[in-house]
Specification:
Riboflavin_kinase_bac/euk, ATP-binding, alpha/beta, six-stranded parallel sheet, 14 strands, Rossmann fold, about 25% strand
Length: about 300
């Protein structure tokens, strides 16, 4: 997979692809369905994705809390794992947001990227103030000889699978159900930062990972699986929240204790998959009560994870 972040300087080797359009946050089963449909429709061209960073919502609603299911580099890797050969990650800034629907198709898709065919969902909107719809898209693509596939959303008994639905499941404390729609457990990926080492004093040293732009799921304690940079997967128990017993007043963070593990992880990038919510965030009477509960949490997580 090759990541392109400047649509104005695309090499000839990356032109003439078939491109799926969208934000692809989470690269969930619905996104995979779109990619597979496009691949089957046009197997004669390399598969690509046209997406954006930051997410347009970040520009238009900066007051919103972080909501991303995955960060851009993780998204690009996930798309590559689905057979996408080129990811065109367009910088979405104020200037780009003012681009008309006509210019998006003519300047970006046709002249900039030189795509041969595009695919999107029926609700795809584009251009300044989202004035372009799929009818307008087809009308603008046709003079360039670019084909269009409109792909119905993949749905289950709960309705169409979408990033917003997965976000809601995570915020409500259902990582297992979110995993079904993603096609894999949801993960938070980030570098291990130095903390106050209070977990070590409690007998459960933790790796501390900032949430940054990730969605904050339901606060509480989770059974987790941690993927190390070398590919090893270590079971553990994770906490997401503000540590009310300690009352440090800091923003929510992810802390994960890796079972039977004693290596230096500072500065390394970990991927922490949330498998099951064990309990909600709770304030305890003191550190002894907290330590006893952590031991119970760890035992429950080991049981769930077969560790």
């Amino acid at each position: 997979m090759i990541l392109h972040t400047d649509w104005r300087n695309i090499p000839a080797s990356a032109r003439n692809t078939v491109a799926a359009l969208g934000n692809f946050d989470g690269v969930h089963r619905g996104h995979v369905h779109l990619l597979e449909t496009l691949r089957m429709a046009r197997p004669d061209h390399p598969l690509s994705v046209v997406t954006f960073d930051p997410h347009p919502r970040t520009l238009f609603r900066p007051q919103d809390p972080p909501f991303r299911l995955m960060l851009p580099d993780v998204r690009a890797a996930a798309l590559g794992a689905q057979g996408v050969e080129h990811v065109f990650q367009i910088p979405f800034d104020a200037e780009f947001s003012r681009l008309s629907a006509d210019r998006f198709v003519n300047d970006v898709l046709a002249n900039g990227l030189g795509v041969a065919h595009v695919a999107c969902g029926a609700d795809f909107a584009f251009g300044h103030r989202r004035h372009g719809n799929i009818d307008r898209l087809e009308e603008l693509l046709t003079p360039h000889g670019i084909g269009l596939s409109i792909v119905p959303q993949l749905a289950d008994e709960g309705g169409p699978i979408s990033s917003s639905r997965i976000r809601r499941l995570l915020q409500e404390g259902y990582p297992e159900r979110a995993a079904e729609e993603l096609g894999r457990p949801w993960s938070i990926t980030g570098p291990v930062m130095h903390g106050d080492q209070r977990g070590r004093l409690l007998g459960f040293p933790t790796a501390n990972i900032p949430l940054t732009q990730h969605l904050e799921p339901a606060r509480g304690v989770y059974a987790a699986r941690v993927t190390l940079p070398d590919g090893r997967i270590i079971p553990g128990v994770a906490n997401i929240g503000r540590r009310p017993t300690i009352n440090d007043g800091q923003e929510s963070r992810l802390e994960v204790h890796l079972f039977d593990f004693n290596e230096d992880l500072y500065g390394q990038t970990l991927s922490v998959a949330l498998i099951a919510l064990l309990r909600d965030e709770k304030k305890f009477s003191g550190l002894d009560a907290l330590k006893a509960q952590i031991a119970c949490d760890a035992a429950q997580a080991r049981s769930i994870l077969g560790a």
